Amino acid sequence: MTASRAATTSVTQWRNWAGNQQASARVARPHSLEELASIIGAAAAGGERVKAVGSGHSFTDIAVTDGVRVDLGALPGPVDVDREHRRVTVPAGMTLATLNALLATHGLALPNLGDIDAQTIAGAISTGTHGTGAAYGCLSTFVVGLTLVTGAGEVVRSDAEAAPEVFGAARVGLGALGVLTEVTLQCVDAFTLRAHERPGRLADVLTDWPALVADNDHCDLYWFPYTDRVQVKTNNRVPADDRPLPGWRGWLDDDFLANTVFAGACRLGRAVPAAVGPINAVSARALTERVYTGRSDAVFCTPRRVRFTEMEYGLPRDAFPTMLGELPRLVEALPFKVQFPVEVRFTAADDIPLSHGYGRDSVYVAVHQFAGAPYEPYFRAVENLARDLGGRPHWGKLHYRDAESLRPVYPRFDEFVALRDRLDPHRVFANAYTERVLGS
């Protein structure tokens, strides 16, 4: 029996977190780099395809395969903490939640995070997952070294000096260049955030946003459709955790209200569409101001148990007033109701070829719909608006773009495709998604 067959179980059904993507495939659980390389080599020889799958938090079909689905959970890897240089090397299949806990025990933290921590490190960086903060790029900008196994079964260890072209591109690699097995991340000393959440008005945000972004380390906005109301969330570094959120308040706001009650409101809105507007109005006006301090990852990340579908676009930052200013008209024209708030975040430019933030400071606008509710006309209308403004779709969020339309907005698109041709000449890591967005 070959190594690949020994590590492969029977065909199993897989679905992503949102439930909108699913596939049947054999599952391979390699226990060594050599076994992983053997699995990939056998697939290439047999004309099969391979996909490493993380936590399933992408809404696109980027992780879908009918070939071999690789589960990296059994693959051993280093956990090496270099406290002096504030660097950590960990298995790429580790979740962000586990990483955050590990870093905290060593007095370290990632400089920035998104609002959930369930993703694997490999999945998060491969799709360009990001947080918010005018001075911070996506999570991939914290990567200073990585190891991947290519479509030829070669193990490549890369950083800014060793195989720099691989390192540069694989930080946001869409799973198209190889299977990431370990990642080295540049961290910072652990820090405390002061969170300030308050209600506001859409008109004020559309005019005051430059100061809001410039004056805060991290800024997040939520607009409630069918209202003129927004929620403004800012996080700033402070020296002491002197205003912790009481346990009951955290449970009430972030668990009960944000998940249990919100899920009930979404189910009601799905059953009675006419109720969505009033529900949003009540929700927006029920928001109260909240100020608290906490460990950085605990403030950045909150539980998300209400299932939804999502599209997110990164745009040149100065396109923000046009983009958000047009959304009320767009939403009103839809043949159904929008149940979720629209989220807005800000990031700094970076130099990663397929990062949404390549070469420009960005604003990200994310639109959602409750699981099971219609979304395609909404998402397509938002995409048309974003595309006209030079938008780049988040690789892990739903979108309808293809290689022809993406090439003009990514100056190094052809450079990435040429590297894919070299690292995966037999398209072992291809699927319908990569063929659409990168070309076949």
Q: Please, could you describe this protein's structure?
A:
By secondary structure, the protein is α+β, with helices and mostly antiparallel strands. It has 14 helices and 19 strands. The strands form four sheets. An eight-stranded antiparallel beta sheet has the order 15-12-14-13-17-18-16-19, sandwiched between helices. A five-stranded antiparallel beta sheet has the order 5-6-10-8-9. A four-stranded mixed beta sheet has the order 1-2-4-3. It is globular. The two termini are 33 Å apart.
Index terms:
eight-stranded antiparallel β-sheet, globular, five-stranded antiparallel β-sheet, alpha+beta, disordered N terminus, 19 strands, 14 helices, 32% helix, 25% strand, 440 residues
Number of strands: 19
Rg measurement, Å: 22 Å
Fraction of residues in helices?
25-40%
Biggest sheet statistics = 8 strands, antiparallel
Total DSSP helices: 14
Sum up the overall morphology in one term.
globular
Oligomerization state: single chain
Instruction: Give the terminus-to-terminus CA distance.
Output: 33 Å
Secondary structure category: alpha+beta
Beta-strand percentage? 25-35%
Strand order of the biggest β-sheet: 15-12-14-13-17-18-16-19
Overall average pLDDT: 92
Q: Poorly predicted ranges (pLDDT <50, ≥5 residues)? A: 1-6
Secondary structure elements and their pairing?
Layout lengths: L2 H4 L1 E8 L6 E7 L4 H14 L3 E3 L15 E3 L9 E3 L4 E5 L4 H10 L2 E2 L11 H6 L16 E7 L5 E5 L4 H7 L8 E8 L1 E2 L2 E10 H13 L3 E6 L5 E10 L8 H25 L4 H11 L3 E6 H5 L7 E9 L3 H13 L9 E6 L14 E9 L5 H13 L3 E2 L9 H4 L6 H11 L8 H7 L2
Parallel strand pairs: 2-4, 3-4
Antiparallel strand pairs: 1-2, 5-6, 6-10, 7-11, 8-9, 8-10, 12-14, 12-15, 13-14, 13-17, 16-18, 16-19, 17-18
Helix pairs in contact: 10-11
